[in-house]
Design a protein that fits this description.
The chain has helices spanning about 1-30, 35-75. It is an all-alpha fold.
Length: about 80
């Protein structure tokens, strides 16, 4: 269940990232430098969330593999 939640979170973070890139390009075209700075900050935050999500997914996948191996050791 945890893996599915973090997989969904990762998909959402990627969608937000795409939206932020499009918004940033629009702001650049319109010469809205203050908005570009805010969007750059949001992109950095988004990248950090993606990094944490990927780490959590990796940890969950690793622990699930360990759990399966442990189960077969018992059998």
């Amino acid at each position: 269940m945890d893996i599915e939640i973090f997989t969904l979170l990762k998909e959402q973070v990627i969608e937000v990232f795409t939206f932020l890139l499009v918004t940033r390009e629009f702001a650049l075209e319109k010469g809205l430098q203050e908005d570009v700075k805010k969007i750059d900050s949001a992109i950095a935050d988004n990248n950090y969330i993606l990094l944490l999500t990927n780490k959590q997914l990796s940890d969950l996948n690793h622990s699930e593999t360990d759990h399966r191996v442990g189960l077969f050791d018992v059998i």
